[in-house]
Amino acid sequence: MKKLISNKGFTLIEVLVALLIFAIGMLGLAGLQLRAHQSSNYAQTRTIATLKASGLVERMRVNVSGVTAGDYAYDYGSDGDPSVVSGCEVESGGTCSPQDRATSDIAEWIQELGTVLPILDDAGDIIASNADIVICQDGDPETDAGASPGAGIVCDNDPNSWTVYIDWSDRRDVTNQVVQRYSFTFVP
Hints:
Elements: H1 10-62, H2 64-68, E1 74-75, H3 76-79, H4 98-114, E2 131-137, E3 162-170, E4 178-186
Antiparallel strand pairs: 1-2, 2-3, 3-4
């Protein structure tokens, strides 16, 4: 007569090992899903920056006199927060000088931009450590972002083209924030 070998608990160990492998696979899948979501948010932010920069360019094309006079030149680092000139609001349809229109266009545009990018504080002012905006005459735009927003932007004052720079800190990685730069160049 043959002696039966006891296999008690062996099936349970197989199930536990399979469950462990499945759990590790699910954790990997969750990490992949999180990364895809972060990349999607990044792409959405870049798309919004593109649309907003295009909107400012359209405002500049309407105010040719302001562009020609250089009234749209703006650097947050040296110019600070612009304010809308009374009577130049887009909604009011008021008439104002090309310079006042340019100042108002930039102020309204920054407020619009701040509603979709993480660049404004609760008071509506640009957070200097988190963003920088430069609009200048530049025929050779700097596309590589520096270590901080606004770093490395050098405008060559080419009168034939304008560049809109939008720099912001991307908060995808809290421990190592990455500066994103979007530049949009156009010929008036």
